[in-house]
Amino acid sequence: FDCWFESGSMPYAQCHYPFSVSQEEFRKRFPADFIAEGLDQTRGWFYTLLVIGTALFNQNPFKNLVVNGLVLAADGTKMSKSKGNYTDPMKIVEQLGADSIRLYLVNSPLVKAEPLKFVDQDVKNIVKEVFLPWYNAYRFFVQNAQRFELVHKQTYCFDPDSVPKAHNFMDKWIVAASQNLIKNVRHEMDNYRLYTVLPSLLGFLDNLTNWYVRLNRYRLKGETSFSDCKAALDVMFSTLLDFTVLMAPFTPFLTEKLYQNLKLGLPLDSREESVHFTMIPQFKRELIDEAIETSVSRMQTVIEVGRKLRDQKRLPLKTPLACLKVIHREDKYLDSLKPVIPYIQKELNCLEVFLEKENKNLVKLKALPNNPVLGARLGKSFNKELREAISNLSSEEVSTFESTHRIVVKGVELSKDELVVKRSYEQLGENLESGGDNEVVVVLDCTQSEDLKKLGAARELVNKVQRLRKTSGLSIQDKVQLVYEEPTHFYKSLLEDYTNFLTQNLKIPLSRVPFEDYKYVAAGTVEHNFQVFSFSLYKQS
To answer: What is the rounded CA–CA span in Å between residue 32 and residue 19?
Structure first.
């Protein structure tokens, strides 16, 4: 017997069984819900625990085993003090915080019992890609809650009853996504699948920061009605609070910092002293809406494809386009996009969005082998001849495969996940750009008419004036006038066609000379094709 016998006796020695506790009391804690150690303990502690548990009780002494991999130096070698091939962890803690290291390790191959090459830069990336967007979303909420209090002269207090009553489509989506997140996190944690938890949490954070906040910024800033602004603030508060509680076990310090301020929006009887005294919330099944989540997911795909197409054509997002076409083989898919068309129009700056069912004469299908899957199943039988035969399948054969999920090629039956289907739009002109994923095709009409150029320039002028108002310290209450110099031919035509657009969006008068009681504040310019439009802002004294 050696020290491993002592380690293997841990479940009994820790409570001095059978001398200091009864059999009944011991059975309440045996077997353990889980144990956790490194992969190197497979032939050590894990083994001796199992041997002694089996010998004494014919039973495994633990229900779940959480095994972590080994942390290596950045070059893949074992960390060594003598070699000095790693940074002192405390230095990283001082520079980037303990939470950044925790999240880096928990969201790594280590939780799958695989090795990790520890790279300092990757820890910095956690701060940049996770903590900063998260904190910026939190700060944006706080700023607008404070603005709400200032404008409406009342203290912001979260109303939990408003969340189930949300009527805005994006509110319903983020609430559904939040409840689904709670459901999945609880389920995966209950089953000790830690490696699936962080990806889902960080995926939700991306949805919250890059999609919900972006698409609802104007509502959260109070640019709609009082009730709509309050509803948006309540939804964001609810999702931020739930997310903070869910993240608390992984990033205990940042979540504590956020919770101490967020809880001020809760009723007094709902506040806890610490986020770590707050129980993980139960999900509300009635708020989960898979259809809405599917619609938004498809919307995100269309928008991301559209952005890539704009980049390919070197068309910045500020340049308006006449139309965008979304093509899919199923009416159900297209119908799911109808509620989110306004968001597609806004994000891709397109005047119109058309939903069109796939036409076999215009959309051609091509099949490619899923090399990892087929290679694992067929081995040497997955040869060049089979790969070429798959690539040479006709568009009609691939279409049939999509419907039946099976096809026989060179005597080999292939199923759904073994082929990758690519789509291409055939009817392309000089100003058309198309692309997509394996399901949907997006076609952009990039034709730039004179009217579109004027609309883009008008929007640019509005943005420039709004930025100038902000940097000049002008408030919403100030009476402001825009005075412009003699316009060039292009801007003269723009003013004739878009005067109503400019006055409605700027909400200030435009003229060639200032009013009598108005004083100069600031000046600015905008440019289109080397034609400059100069203007000044005047404020009533």
So the answer is: 19
What sign has the CA pseudo-torsion 78, 79, 82, 84? Answer: positive
Q: Given this model, what pLDDT does residue 519 score?
A: 94
Question: Is residue 1 scored above 70 in pLDDT?
Answer: no
Provide the residue count of the chain.
541
Which backbone phi and psi does 513 adopt, to 5 degrees?
-130, 150
User: For the chain, how long is the longest CA-to-CA vector?
Assistant: 101
The per-residue pLDDT for range 274-302, each reduced to its tens digit, is 999 999 999 999 999 999 999 999 999 99
Question: Tokens standing for 514?
Answer: 């200032």
pTM of the model: 0.86
Cis? peptide before 18, omega within 30° of 0:
yes
Structure tokens at 205: 């954070």
Confidence of residue 432 (pLDDT cuts 50, 70, 90): confident
Mark 351-384 as b/e (b = at least 16 C-beta within 10 Å).
eebebeebeeebbebbbebbeebbeeeeeeebee
Contact 197, 102 (CB under 8 A): no
Tell me what the pLDDT averaged over the chain comes to.
92
Beta strand 531-540 with 518-528: parallel, antiparallel or unpaired? antiparallel
Indicate the Cα dihedral angle 15, 20, 21, 26, nearest 10°: 30
The predicted-structure confidence for 303-332, as pLDDT tens digits, reads as follows 999 999 999 988 888 899 999 999 999 999
CA angle 410, 416, 421 (to 5 degrees): 85
Long-range contact list for 77-82, CB < 8 A, 24+ apart? 79/118
How far from 466 is each of 481, 524, 536, 537, CA to CA, in Å? Answer: 12, 11, 12, 11
Q: Is a pLDDT exceeding 80 seen at residue 123? A: yes
In this structure, the strands spanning 116-117 and 71-72 are: parallel
* pLDDT tens per residue, range 241-260: 999 999 999 999 999 999 99
Q: Are strands 510-511 and 480-484 parallel, antiparallel or unpaired?
A: parallel
Spatial distance between the Cα atoms of 178 and 287, rounded to a whole number of angstroms: 9
